[in-house]
Amino acid sequence: MLSISPLYAALIGLLFLALSANVVRMRLKHRVSVGDGGEKLVIKAMRTQANCAEYAPITLLLVAMAELQGGPAWLIHLLGLLILLGRLLHAYGFGRTPQIVPLRQTGMYLTFSALLLAALANLALTF
């Protein structure tokens, strides 16, 4: 039974909802109905949301699988915190104008660390 990973999935779901609302807000502001309309701020909002959509699902799936395989609670919390913090920092750093590059980079490193550690944890728990 999953009891820890749903917490992080829910929090990242709320982050994704906020990023999605920002895309809608930018489209309304720049009067763009479909796509990005060539507007740089709309493109930035869309890429910030899309980046979350690209990395969060696979990492959360791996975290949930590690929990289902009996991974210790401390490991599931560590992985969940890494992906959550990584996605928050990346979204904030990348979404700002001008970008806050150190936050974006730190978010990327934390996200990649969560993805790598979750994959390795699943391999270790499988054997």
Task: Kindly describe this structure.
Helix 1 runs antiparallel to helix 2 (40-68), helix 1 (5-29) packs parallel to helix 3 and helix 2 (40-68) packs antiparallel against helix 3 (73-95). The protein has 4 helices and no strands. 81% of the residues lie in helices and 0% in strands. The protein is an all-alpha fold. It has a single domain (5-126), classed as Up-down Bundle (Four Helix Bundle (Hemerythrin (Met), subunit A)).
- CATH homologous superfamily annotation: Membrane associated eicosanoid/glutathione metabolism-like domain
Mean pLDDT: 97
| Percent helix | over 70%
How widely separated are the two ends?
20 Å
Rg, Å, rounded: 16 Å
Global outline = elongated
N-to-C order of helices and strands = HHHH
Number of helices: 4
Instruction: Identify the CATH architecture.
Output: Up-down Bundle
CATH C-level label: Mainly Alpha
Determine the structural class based on helices, strands and strand pairing.
mainly alpha
Could you say what the CATH topology is called?
Four Helix Bundle (Hemerythrin (Met), subunit A)
How many distinct domains? 1
Low-pLDDT segments, ≥5 res: none
Main sheet makeup: none
Strand content: under 5%
Using DSSP, what is the number of strands?
0
In short:
The protein is mainly alpha-helical. It is 81% helix and 0% strand.
Q: How are the secondary structure elements laid out?
A:
Elements: H1 5-29, H2 40-68, H3 73-95, H4 101-126
Helix pairs in contact: 1-2, 1-3, 2-3, 2-4, 3-4
Summary tags:
mainly alpha; 4 helices; elongated; 127 residues; Four Helix Bundle (Hemerythrin (Met), subunit A)
